[in-house]
Amino acid sequence: MCPKFKGDSEDWLDDEGDSVSAKARAAARKSSHARATPLAPEKANAVVAEVYPNQCRVKLLADDRELLCAFRRAGVLQKGEIRERSPVAVGDLVFVKELGTRHAEMDQGLVEGVCARSNRLYRPAPGREGTQIHHVIAANMDLVVIVASERDPDFSPGLVDRFLVAAQAARIDTLICATKCDLWSVDSPQRLAPPWKLYLELGFEIAEVSAKRGDGVAALRERLKGKKALFCGHSGVGKTSLLRALLGTELGRVGEVSQATGKGRHTTTATVLVGGPDGSQWMDSPGIREFGLADIDAEKLAEFFPELGRAGCAKTGCHHEGEEGCAAAATPRYSSFRRILQSLRSGEN
Ligand SMILES: Nc1nc2c(ncn2[C@@H]2O[C@H](COP(=O)(O)OP(=O)(O)O)[C@@H](O)[C@H]2O)c(=O)[nH]1
Ligand SMILES: [Mg+2]
Ligand SMILES: [Zn+2]
Hints:
Strand order of the largest sheet: 10-9-8-11-13-12
Low-confidence stretches: 1-21, 30-35, 252-260, 262-268
Number of helices: 10
Largest sheet: 6 strands, mixed
Bound molecules: guanosine-5'-diphosphate, magnesium ion, zinc ion
Shape: globular
Helix content: 10-25%
CATH architecture of the largest domain: 3-Layer(aba) Sandwich
CATH topology of the largest domain: Rossmann fold
Order of helices and strands: HEEEHEEEEEHEHEHEHHHEEHH
């Protein structure tokens, strides 16, 4: 038996054919939603490495072998009010069956079930007919590596704070990676300079690296060993270069596999699990502008900015929202806080 590998639709549910009425499709979707039950994580035999329309590439946990898989509908549809754009996301643990056939130079398989996740990060995306769907960037992470450069491109504090809030809200550890340190002036100890000084003082972990010169790469490799880590940040900050430096030559394979399936484009527009030593699962992502913060209650946002509370006005019941005499207004991340708060209130997320 060979799975049907279908076209280029962005939405895997779009493949149901025009002859079926919209009503019937909706009913089918509803009933299949009700059927799906996530598997226990110990049932997994593979991890999702890359997602294409209607299929995905997985790595078998036993021997790292890769399979190109289609989805068994009943096995992958998940419960939930907001649909996800794909039936699986990179980092998902899955149970797959090998089919004993080959396509585009890869052995084929079928995803029969998806395991319950420990966490996920997603981006809200527009669905059909004005609905909202979730585009899951990655699932099951131990660590979010927030990659940022001081210049080329310039440091973007708002983006780093957004990533920090989203990861902390999803209860995932964070590491800020200060890249391109070869561009810093040799004479000044830049580690203690802004913007890094601020984050160090707030208690965040910072790794200083240069993919180009190799500074900090061995220490970072050690820190990330065995971890499921998502690399994220503004495009151009050096995520892919850093992963290449951490992995040596292994990263070259990513593009090749994608070309084989005719989906080369996707390596730059979606997350890819690139592997790593000793069972590490390192994931490269495209330049993500934001993670979904929709699950965060606006009233609770200040918890992710503990320095606001420490500024001295909280005792008086101040919400740090522009009140007269608010001491928190002088803290460095105050404008980030206000901007994120505003976007939560306006429902932009
Ligand atoms: N000077 C310097 N340039 C770097 C370094 N790392 C990456 N770059 C350059 O920054 C640009 C963007 O790198 P890339 O890895 O594609 O960034 P990504 O978009 O975050 O994946 C490329 O031109 C790289 O050569 C570094 O450590 N030092
Ligand atoms: Mg990149
Ligand atoms: Zn205040």
